[in-house]
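ugh ok fine here u go
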Amino acid sequence: MLTLGKLQIDSPFVQAALSGYSDLAMRRIARRLGAAYTLNEVVLDRLVTQKGKTRRRTLRVEADDHPVGGQLMGALPEQFAEAAADMVEAGYDVIDINFGCPVRKVLGRCRGGYHLSQPDVAVEIIRRVYDAVGGRLPVTVKMRRGINGTSEAERDFFAILDGAFEIGVAGITVHGRTVEQRYVGPANWDFLARVKKHAGDSVILGSGDLFSAEACLRMIERTGVDGVTIARGAIGNPWIFAECRSLAASGKLPPPPSVPEQGRVIAEHFDEAIKVHGASLAGKIMRKFGIKYSEHHPSARQVRDAFIAVRQPDQFQGVISRWYDPQVEWPPVQRRQGHGDLVAAGAE
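structure:
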C-alpha cells in the first residue's frame, strides 16, 4: 500500500510524470498492466490557466483514469496556485509540484530544478499550492537531491524538504541525481536512504535507475522508501508494473511477454493514442514508443529500424502485423535488465 493523504493506493509502484510520454494513452496501458497510480506529463502552469489546446488537453480527466496526479512546473508562486486550483476542479486526485526537471531551457527560465537553488521561493510555491488545494486533495513534490553536489545545495534540499512537510504535503519523490548531473552517472541510493531516515514516517518515494522490477524492489529494500516512481523504465515497458507486483507478492517474476503479447499491447496502445490524438498525430507519437517497445523483441534492431521508418499510421500497423505475427514461431524472448542488458528468461 501507498498512502498519500487520504488517498489509499494498493501498490507502491508509480508511473512517473514523463514529458512527451505519459499521456492518457500511456497511462491507460500502464493501468491495465498493474500501475495503480499514474501521473500526467508535466505541464507549464500558465498553459493550464490560459485558453488553448494545452488547457483543454490537460483538464481532460477521464472516468477510467483514476487515481491520477497532475504535475505542474513554473516560476511564479501565484501562477502555480491558480493552475493547481483549475486542475482540482478538472478532477485530478493529486497535485504534484515539479522541482526536478534538469533541462537547460527549463532552468534558464527559473523553472523545474532551478527552484532547488532558492529554497525560500520553493517553499512559497508549495505553500501557495497547498493553501489553494491542500484541503481538498493531496499535494506532493518532485525533487532531485540538489542543484549540484555541494554541501550548500544539500542544505537547500533539506530546507525545502522540511518546509514542505511542515506545510503539510502528503509525500515527496526524490530522484537520486543532482540537477547538474541530469542523467549522467548512477543515481545515489545512499542519499535516498538518508532522506527517508530523516523524514521518518513522512512519505518518501524514490526515483532513479529503475529499469527493472528487481531494481524497484531493491531500492525499497535498500533505502526504506515508501514507494518508487518509474520513469524512463516504463517507456515501452508497461509490463514492469505487473512484474513489480508479482516479485513483491511471491518473490518470482512472471515470464517475459511473448512476441504476440507484445504486439497485442502495442496495438492497444496505438488504438488508445488514436482515441486521444487522432490517427495522424498518433502515428507520429507512437514511433518513439515503438522504438522502445522494440527492445523486447528477439529481432530488436530490425524492429527498431522498422518503427523508425514509419511515416503513416497504416505503416505503424504494418510493423505490428509483420513483426508481431502470432502465426510465426518466434525465438524465446529474453528479459531486458538495467539499461538494456539481456538476461535469459528464467535466469533472474
